[in-house]
Amino acid sequence: MDTRSRFTGSIRFRLAAWFAAIVLGIIAILGVSFSTLLERGLREDVDSRIEATANRVKSEILVFSDPTTSEISGQLTAPPDFYSFPSLLIQVVDATGEILISSENLNDPNQTTKKARPLRVESAPEGSAAPIFVTTSLDGVKIRAVNLPLVVQSTRQTVGAVVVGEPLIQLEQTLDHVRRLLLVGGLIGVAVAAASGWFLAGRALRPVDRITATAAAIAEEQGVGSALSTRLDVGRGGDELARLAATFNRMLNRLQGTFESQQRFLADASHELRTPLTAIRGNVDVLSRQLKRNEADGGEVSEALDDLRRESERMGRLVEDLLLLARTEASPEQGQRRTPVQLEDLAQEAVRVASGLAEGQRISVISHIPVTVWADRDRLFQVLLILLDNAVRHTPREGEINVRISQETGRAILKVTDSGEGIPTSDLPKVFDRFYRLDSSRQRRSGGTGLGLAIAKAIVESHNGTIEVGSGVGSGTTFTISMPLPGFEGAK
After folding, report:
1. Please, are residues 116 and 100 in contact by the beta-carbon 8 Å criterion?
2. How large is the greatest C-alpha to C-alpha distance in the chain, in angstroms?
3. Smallest Cα–Cα separation from 149: which of 232, 58, 65, 76?
4. What count of other Cβ atoms lies within 10 Å of the Cβ of residue 301?
5. How many CB atoms sit inside 10 A of residue 189's CB?
6. Domain 240-330 CATH assignment equals 1.10.287.130
7. Are 49 and 56 in contact (CB under 8 A)?
8. Pairing, β 362-367 against β 400-408
9. d(CA 446, CA 396)
10. Which residues, other chains included, contact 305 with Cβ-Cβ below 8 Å and sequence gap of 6+?
């Protein structure tokens, strides 16, 4: 999983995102509700204003009626503009729609004569005096207008109408301004909510981060003893995370106790085994010398003594390897004396020693550039001897073993390659396990304890390095060690 996926998939990110989404939903609902109510109120206010103006104009108009005709006088006590705000548009029309009276702001500005432009509204049903509200347009501008019919009361005849309109420019500008404010305010609110959620989630999940870091340190097997001694701070609130931290501390207590007990047992057992093994080897040597001095026919007794000597030596090596592995895993850096180590010189020295173990195999060092690492020379030398000894055991006499030294970005690379029988793919994940041997190398005469590669892995990892193996049946085996160069992350 890459960094981005790990970030977006974290509980902290999801909590902050949910918090921001909830706040966004609340702000959106409140914003839409407020905008809708405001628009409705403003439109009702416009309708009330134009209706009141229409009624006022209607009250100033005289309607005459006789048996043959009805007409509007067309005379007002004041001009139409007197009855309204400057933005209102007023017209009085007859039954045919001809304009009888019009406010100045309805005159066509492109005409030399002052000719009024009609407000086109829906006609009222014959005889109905109820106002009709419509939304129309004039010169591309939305107009809210009311048609208030003029009706002769005696005959219920519609003789004209008072039309009052108001442009909706100001209303729409007000609504747009409010919506922009709501949008900006909502975005700011969501940003503040997301930041607050991120901060609060981080504080709430801080104990989980400490638990994760402690568990990761234990899983990486770097200083297991010191990692197990780590304890988490348990908050005083007694919440779920505090109880989780307390439970994790109790688990660490039991793990530390088990680990320390195992280490003590391994060290004590290995130490106690040294004395009887030394006594056994000494007695075997004494018996062998007595047999030779008495010139007795050793026969089966001599063979038994040889078996005892060989098995006691193998047991001695096993005890020493167990002690070394226990010390390395318990405190990886304890007792290390790190100095600048030139890998080519180290490899040449290890090859000279391993050549004494070879039975015809050709061992060589290949290095084109000097590579220096910061390491414990003795420990690193031991790793090379383990790998070379392993290569000699599994390479035929006419085979070849190479130690290649190179470097990549910030890393020193050391490869030990042989032309032996190789390792089956199914066995590759197990080669660094303790006491693991391939089926073809289980003979005790080989002298191996099954701990060499486990020790090599522990030493390399104590230097913040990695060791990997690549192989195939019949194609040889390559062990690759990668360590940080001085000055790069991981180098100490």
Report:
1. no
2. 168
3. 58
4. 13
5. 17
6. yes
7. no
8. parallel
9. 14
10. 284, 287, 288, 291, 298
Give the three-state DSSP class for 125: coil
121: left (phi over 0), alpha (psi -120 to 50) or beta: beta
Q: What is the pLDDT of residue 39?
A: 92
3-state secondary structure (DSSP) of residue 354:
helix
Tell how many helices (H) and how many strands (E) occur in the chain. 10, 14
C-alpha–C-alpha distance, residues 59 and 80, integer Å: 12
pLDDT value of residue 235: 63
* Strand pairing class (477-484; 466-471): antiparallel
Instruction: Give the pairing of strands 132-138 and 141-152.
Output: antiparallel
* Cβ atoms of 166 and 143 closer than 8 Å: yes
Give the other-Cβ count within 10 Å of 303's Cβ: 10
Taking the alpha carbons of 365, 366, 367, 372 in that order, is the dihedral positive or negative? negative
Give 196-239 as a DSSP string.
Answer: HHHHHHHHHTHHHHHHHHHHHHHHTTSSHHHHHT--PPPPTT--
The token duo for 320 is 């020493």
> Of 213, 232, 231, whose CA–CA distance to 222 is shortest?
213
Pair 267, 323: CB distance under 8 Å: yes
* CATH superfamily, with its number, for domain 338-484: Histidine kinase-like ATPase, C-terminal domain (3.30.565.10)
Beta bridge partners of 134: 145
Partner residues linked to 166 by β-bridges: 144
Q: Which residues of 218-238 are buried (b: 16+ CB within 10 A; e: fewer)?
A: beeeebbeebbeeebebeeee
The parts of the chain modelled with pLDDT lower than 70 are 1-7, 9, 62-86, 109-114, 214-215, 217-238, 266-267, 269-275, 277, 281, 291-305, 307, 310-314, 316-336, 437-449, 488-492
Tokens matching residue 423: 């390792």
Specify the pLDDT at position 111. Answer: 61
Listed in order, strand segments (DSSP E) in 63-167 are: 63-65, 70-72, 89-94, 99-102, 132-138, 141-152, 157-167
Q: Minimal CA–CA distance to 160: which of 129, 205, 195?
A: 129
- DSSP structural state of residue 40: H
Under a CB-based contact definition with an 8 Å cutoff, are residues 159 and 63 in contact?
Answer: yes
- The pTM of the full predicted model, rounded to 2 decimals, is 0.49
Q: What is the DSSP string of 388-401?
A: HHHHHHTS-TT-EE
Pairing, β 466-471 against β 99-102: unpaired
Number of neighbouring beta carbons within 10 Å of residue 463: 24
- First and final C-alpha spacing in the chain: 29
Please state the domain extents for the chain: 66-168, 240-330, 338-484
CATH topology of domain 66-168: Beta-Lactamase (3.30.450)
